[in-house]
Amino acid sequence: MPDWTSPTELGIDADLFVKLNHALIGLYTWEWFISFGFDWEVLTGRKPFRWPLIFYFANRYLLLGAMAGIAGALDSTEEINCQAIYTFNQFSGDAAVGLASMNLSLRTIAIWAQNKSIKILLALFIMGHWALILQGVILKAHWEPTLNSCVLTVSNNRLLAATFAYTMCFDLLVFLLNAYKLGVKCKTSGKLSKMMFNDGLIYFFVAFFFNLVATVFMFINLNSIMVILFNAPAAIASTIVATRAVRHLTNFAAQGPEKYTTSGWSLGQFRVHRKNPGLTSTQGGTKIMTYSGVDVQSPYISPLILHSITVPIT
C-alpha cells in the first residue's frame, strides 16, 4: 500500500487531479454546448419562461463558472487572488449540488399536486442543505511562489463530507417520493409516468453514486488532494442529470396531454368534464382518461389533473 502522504505520491495525485479536472471541464463544456439550444429558446421567448427555470439556469451557469474558475486556478502561471477564486469555486460547486437537488424537489412537489406536507418536508430539507453549503465556503488559500500555484491552507473537510452525505439522503428522499407517487399511486403505463419515473431513477443512481464516492474519500482523508478529488465529478454528474430531467419534461409537455383508454376508439369531437373520472361506457361514446398539467408549458410537471373525455363512437 502506498504512503499517501509521501512527496512522490502527492506529486502523482496532483498530476491526476489536474488531468481529471481538465477532462471534466471538457465534458461539462460539451454538455453545455449541445444543450444550449434549450437555453436560447427560453431566453429568446420561443419557450415560455417560468420561475422554476431560475434554479435551472443558476444550476447550469454557476457550475460553468466554477469550472472556468478551476481552470484559471490550475493553469495560472502568474500570481492571482487565490482566496477569491477558491471561495468562488467552492461556493459555485457546492451550490450546483444544492441546486440540482432543488430542481428535482420542485418537480416532486408538483407531482404531489402541491401537497402541503410534502412542501414542508422538502422545504426543511432544502434549508438544511443550504445551511451546510454556505458554511462550507469558509476556507483560506494563498499564492505560493515556490510552487507557482495556489495552495489551500484551511478547509473544513468534515463539514464538506457532511454536506455530500446530506445530499445523498436528500436524493434518496426525492427518489422514494417520486417512485411512490409515479410507480405505486399512479397505476398507469403512460409515456409521461414512464419518463418521469425513469428520469428519477437515473438521477438518483448517478447522483448517489458520485456523491457516495466523494463522501468516502473525504472521510478516509488519504491526503490533501485525494480528499477533494471526486468533488467536481459529483457536482457535474448531479447537475447534468438534474438539468436534463428539466429539459426532458419541458419538451415532453410541448407534445400536449396524454390519453389512456382500455378499449378501442376513434378520434372525433370530444368534450372535457372535470367531474369524477373513470373508465366507463356512456351512451353515444366511450369515456377515457387523460392526464394533463395545469400548465403544460411549465418545465416542472404541474399538479396532474385527471379529466374524463367522452369520445363519440364512429
Question: How many beta-strand segments?
Answer: 7
In DSSP terms (H or I, runs of 4 or more residues), the helix count works out at 8
Element-level helix/strand string: HHHHHEEHHHEEEEE
Mean pLDDT across residues: 78
CATH architecture group name of the largest domain: Up-down Bundle
Q: What is the molecular shape? A: globular
Radius of gyration: 24 Å
Query: What is the oligomeric state here?
Result: single chain
Helix share bin: 55-70%
Category from helices, strands and their pairing:
alpha+beta
Could you say how many structural domains there are in total? 2
Q: The CATH topology of the largest domain, please?
A: Rhopdopsin 7-helix transmembrane proteins
- Output the CATH class name of the largest domain: Mainly Alpha
- In percent terms, what proportion of residues is strand? 5-15%
The CATH superfamily label of the largest domain reads Rhodopsin 7-helix transmembrane proteins
Report on the structure:
The chain is α+β, with helices and mostly antiparallel strands and about 325 residues long. It folds into two domains: about 250 residues, Up-down Bundle (Rhopdopsin 7-helix transmembrane proteins); about 55 residues, no CATH class. Helices cover about 60% and strands about 10% of the residues. The protein is built from eight helices and seven strands; from the N terminus they run αααααββαααβββββ. The strands form two sheets. Strands 3, 4, 5, 6 and 7 form a five-stranded antiparallel beta sheet that branches. A hairpin with a 4-residue loop joins strand 1 and strand 2. The radius of gyration is 24 Å and the shape is globular. The chain starts with 6 loop residues before the first helix and ends with a strand. About 30% of the residues are buried. The C terminus is likely disordered.
